């Protein structure tokens, strides 16, 4: 019984890593902080002229609209924000800093989208959204 309680406590600690912003619990740090910051996905997506259905689906699946959502990847890079912008793109869109606020993350999302030829291909969830090769 003590072992079960200990396991549940450890699981709870990992589940709450970064205040719940890192649901996988693998984040070694919290570049976007420990407070959630939920934005209106539809309103955010309407700020750019891309396929609105695809944007809503991608952002919904990537972050559920949490501007402080984070994921730590096996290759030791972070994905952050509503678009889950990978760390390799931060230098192109935010001077190398984590784009944790919704406006900066949207700007980075637009840059990644444009660099991909106005396609949703960089987001792994695009296939599940039916948007893999759509603009």
Secondary structure topology:
Elements lengths: L1 H14 L25 H5 L6 H12 L6 E3 L5 E3 L4 E2 L3 H5 L7 H14 L20
Antiparallel strand pairs: 1-2, 2-3
Structure, explained:
With 135 residues, the protein is mainly α. The protein has helices at 2-15, 41-45, 52-63, 90-94, 102-115, and strands at 70-72, 78-80, 85-86. It contains 5 helices and 3 strands. A 3-stranded antiparallel beta sheet has the order 1-2-3. The model is unreliable at 6-15 (pLDDT under 50).
Question: Which terms would index this structure?
Answer:
mainly alpha; three-stranded antiparallel β-sheet; globular; 37% helix; 135 residues; 5 helices; 6% strand
Concise summary:
The chain has helices at 2-15, 41-45, 52-63, 90-94, 102-115; strands at residues 70-72, 78-80, 85-86. The protein is mainly alpha-helical. The protein has a 3-stranded antiparallel sheet.
Number of strands: 3
Content-based structural category: mainly alpha
End-to-end Cα distance, whole Å, is 54 Å
User: How would you write the strand order of the largest sheet?
Assistant: 1-2-3
The geometry reads as globular
Biggest sheet architecture: 3 strands, antiparallel
Quaternary assembly: single chain
- Percent helix: 25-40%
Strand content: 5-15%
Low-confidence stretches: 6-15
What's the gyration radius in Å? 16 Å
In DSSP terms (H or I, runs of 4 or more residues), the helix count works out at 5
Mean pLDDT: 90
N-to-C series of helices and strands: HHHEEEHH
